[in-house]
Amino acid sequence: MKSKIIIFIIALLVIFQFFGEKTPYQEPTSADLFAVENAPEEVKLLIQKNCYDCHSNQVNYPWYSNVAPVSWWLQDHINEGREHLNFSNWVDYKADKKAHKMEEAWEEVEEEEMPLPSYTYVHWEANLSEAEKQVLIDWFKEIEGKYKAG
């Protein structure tokens, strides 16, 4: 009986691998944040390393994104992140929305809500130093001010 249960569970896990899909990587376009906003190289690298996997169309999927049901959770997380902010569609936002998104961005970094702890647990390189946090906060505030002034 125990072996039948184990075989059933293994069969289910194998079947799960055929369901779900990933959004394919898309090269940056003229709608991308960095096609519109002039950012220092340090800022650009920090945002791409710490934000783009969930907040852009330039997702670098890790190996475990091919293993269901983890892949489903991961894709749902990415979709949700893009709903809140998608840097790949930056030009589609109106000025007041851009200002609001930048305000949210610096607040999330300042309050250590972003990058998410679940992300930094697996992507240890995404843990921001205090200096890196301040660089991002300052730049996000600068862009927020640009669109508030408008």
Topology:
Blueprint (H helix, E strand, L loop, with lengths): L1 H15 L16 H4 L4 H10 L1 H4 L14 H15 L10 H16 L6 H6 L7 H20 L1
Explain how this protein is built.
The chain has helices at residues 2-16, 33-36, 41-50, 52-55, 70-84, 95-110, 117-122, 130-149. With 150 residues, it is an all-alpha fold. The protein has one domain (2-149). The N and C termini lie far apart (69 Å). The mean pLDDT is 86.
Put the structure in a nutshell.
With 150 residues, this protein is mostly helical. It contains eight helices and no strands. Helix 3 packs across helix 8 and helix 6 (95-110) packs antiparallel against helix 8.
